[in-house]
Amino acid sequence: MLLAAQFELASRKRLVRAMCKPYAPWEDDLITNHYSTFGASYIAERLGRTPAAIRARAGILGARTKVFAWTLREDNILRDCHPNLKRAATLLPNRTRWAIRGRATSLGLSRQKLWTRDQEALLSKATRYCSDVQLAEILGRTPGAIKLRRNELRSLRVPRKESTVPVVRDVVREAKRRGVKLTKLTKALKCGRVDPADD
């Protein structure tokens, strides 16, 4: 046990020494001349250091990355892909995820839709009868936005997904009368399981 602890301590010391290794003049020249073109990851791989270490050293040396202005083509791609920013990231490989989010915000694409009083009233009343997915379809929002707004309003608890609501019970009875399987019905309604009492 003691030997394992000593070995772990020695390996940590070696790691710290490697991280604190002083930079040679040729390494500083490489960072100064090529940081703006190739970036931290590329240089870190060549020098056997971490990208964070290269970024820190570049800051000390005053080296900066080039910031390329957004083109009209890139803006149009971003507008077409919004709100799916992951798709935009695949179509804009030279832009980071944070650059894409920042540009979407500056173009006014990432602004949240404000809630109207009517929507909040509907959310408060329908929470007992509908799931988050159903409310999201009705209000044109995401289920996450529904849950977040409900928590902000602290209006009601999260509804149970069982079909104990009279409206759903009527739909279940009609489906049985027509011979529709309950599993197909629950998938179509995007709700949870049906209570055995309704069967």
Would you give an account of this structure?
The chain is mainly alpha-helical. The chain is built from 12 helices and no strands. It has helices at 2-19, 25-38, 40-47, 51-61, 72-81, 85-91, 97-106, 117-126, 132-139, 143-153, 166-178, 182-189. Helix 2 runs antiparallel to helix 3 (40-47), helix 3 packs across helix 4 (51-61) and helix 9 (132-139) packs across helix 10. The mean pLDDT is 75.
List the helices and strands and how they pair.
Blueprint (H helix, E strand, L loop, with lengths): L1 H18 L5 H14 L1 H8 L3 H11 L10 H10 L3 H7 L5 H10 L10 H10 L5 H8 L3 H11 L12 H13 L3 H8 L10
Helix pairs in contact: 2-3, 2-4, 3-4, 5-6, 9-10
Cα shape: elongated
The amount of beta strand, in percent, is under 5%
The biggest beta sheet reads: none
By DSSP, the count of extended strands is 0
The ordered string of helix (H) and strand (E) elements is: HHHHHHHHHHHH
| Structural class by helix and strand composition | mainly alpha
Helix proportion range:
55-70%
Low-confidence stretches: none
The N- to C-terminal Cα distance equals 62 Å
Radius of gyration: 28 Å
Count helical runs. 12
The chain-level mean pLDDT equals: 75
